[in-house]
Write a structure and sequence with these properties.
The chain is an alpha/beta fold. The protein is 37% helix and 25% strand. It contains ten helices and 13 strands. β11, α9 and β12 form a beta-alpha-beta unit. The chain is globular. The two termini are 28 Å apart.
C-alpha cells in the first residue's frame, strides 16, 4: 500500500482518464461528470461504463455535463474528512469543458487550500498530469513545489488520437477546429490533439487505419525527440485489440520510458467520440 502524504490530496475529474488501478493504489479522489439520458442520469465511471454508452449510441446520444457543485463539494468534504488541508485539483481543458470553472467555484468555499490546474488537455494527457502530481506528493514535496512542477510539465504533455467517424464530435458540439474536416473524403482519418488553448485541432489527415497508426507513432517519436525522461500512454474506446498491439510496440520501441499507462476512455468522453478511438499520450519529464 502506498503511503498517503498527509499534506497534499490530489483530486481529478473522471474525463482525465487516470487508470482505475492507479487511482485506487495511490488514493486519488475522483469527481465524475454526469451523463443524462431522457429517463435517467448516470455518474461517469461510477454508475455507467463505456460499453453501455457505446451499445446505446444508436438509440440515444446522451447529454454530458461537468460535475455538479454537490458532487465536487462531496469530494472536498471527503478529502477534509481524511485529514487533508491542501489539495491539487487537476482538470481537463477549460476549452472543452466547464469542469475547471466548477471546481474553482467549489474550491473557494471548501475550507481547504486548493490549487486548480487547467491542463489544457483531454483524457489521458490530462491524467498524466494528475499521476505526476500524486507521485510528487508521495515523494513529500510541498504543494507549491508540486504545483510549479506539474504546470511546467503539463505544457509538454500531448495526446494524439483518432476516431473512425467525426459524427459524435459534431453531435456533441466538441469538434473545435476539426469542424472543417467533417464530410471530407471517405476513409480520411484525422489525427486530433489539443492546441495551446486546449481546443481540438487536426494534427494530420491520413487515409486508412494502418497509415493513421503509423503517423501517430511518428508524431509520438517527434514529440519525444531527445527527451531523457518521459511517460507514455495508450487509451482506447472499445478498440482493445489495436490498443494492446500498440502497447506492445511502445514497450519495444521505448524500453527507457518510465511508465506506459493503458486504459479505456471514460464513458463521458465516449459519448463524444463514439467507439473505435485510439489515443497515444506522451509526457516529457526532462
Amino acid at each position: 500500500m502506498t503511503k498517503i502524504n498527509p499534506h497534499v490530496a490530489i483530486l481529478v475529474d473522471s474525463c482525465s482518464d487516470v487508470p482505475a488501478d492507479f487511482i485506487a493504489e495511490h488514493h486519488l479522489y475522483m469527481v465524475p461528470m454526469t451523463i443524462a439520458y431522457h429517463d435517467e442520469i448516470f455518474l461517469d465511471k461510477v454508475t455507467i461504463d463505456p460499453d453501455t454508452v457505446y451499445a446505446n449510441l444508436d438509440k440515444e446520444v446522451p447529454k454530458t455535463a461537468s460535475p455538479t457543485g454537490d458532487l465536487i463539494a462531496k469530494a472536498f468534504a471527503d478529502i477534509k474528512a481524511d485529514g487533508f488541508k491542501e489539495v491539487i485539483a487537476v482538470c481537463i481543458s477549460s476549452g472543452l469543458s466547464g469542469t475547471f470553472q466548477q471546481v474553482e467555484i467549489a474550491a473557494r468555499v471548501s475550507g481547504l487550500d486548493v490549487s486548480v490546474i487547467d491542463t489544457k488537455n483531454i483524457g489521458i494527457a490530462s491524467g498524466l498530469t494528475a499521476i505526476l502530481a500524486a507521485q510528487l506528493s508521495e515523494e513529500g514535496l510541498h504543494k507549491v513545489e508540486i504545483e510549479a512542477r506539474i504546470r511546467t510539465v503539463a505544457k509538454h504533455t500531448k495526446v494524439f488520437f483518432y476516431v473512425p467517424t467525426l459524427t459524435y464530435l459534431q453531435k456533441g458540439g466538441r469538434i473545435g477546429r476539426v469542424a472543417g474536416m467533417a464530410g471530407t473524403l471517405l476513409n480520411i482519418k484525422p489525427i486530433i490533439s489539443c492546441d495551446d488553448d486546449g481546443i481540438y485541432y487536426p494534427v494530420a489527415k491520413v487515409r486508412g487505419e494502418k497509415k493513421t497508426l503509423l503517423k501517430m507513432k511518428k508524431l509520438l517519436a517527434e514529440t519525444i525527440g531527445n527527451a531523457q525522461r518521459f511517460n507514455l500512454a495508450v487509451a482506447d474506446g472499445a478498440n482493445h485489440e489495436i490498443a494492446a498491439q500498440l502497447t506492445v510496440e511502445l514497450h519495444e520501441l521505448y524500453p527507457q520510458a518510465e511508465h506506459i499507462f493503458t486504459g479505456n476512455v471514460s464513458p463521458a468522453l465516449g459519448v463524444h467520440t463514439g467507439p473505435g478511438l485510439i489515443g497515444l499520450g506522451v509526457q516529457i519529464l526532462a
